[in-house]
Amino acid sequence: MSLDHVLSTLGLAPRNPNSxxxxxxxxxxxxxxxxxxxxxxxxxxxxxxxxxxxxxxxxAAKQSRYLAEAAGTQAWRSARAVRRDPLPLIAAVGxxxxxxxxxxx
Length: 105
Known about the structure:
86% helix
């Protein structure tokens, strides 16, 4: 009496590895492995992108803060200059108004 005979009498006959059912199960296992690998790769890629975007955001915040400080300083200097001598501002506004009127016609 062989092991195959005992298993077949119990209804647990070994399957033929070339049967369609065995091939389908092997494909399912392969698909699960591929899915796990893709998921792992996607997770690592997302972490890398997250790190890069976070670094980019911090750098953009630093640059924005610098630009805001520079713009504020320039605005403060301009306001003081206009208080001291408003004539150049009046001339610039008048010139822009005149050009706009000439272009519109």
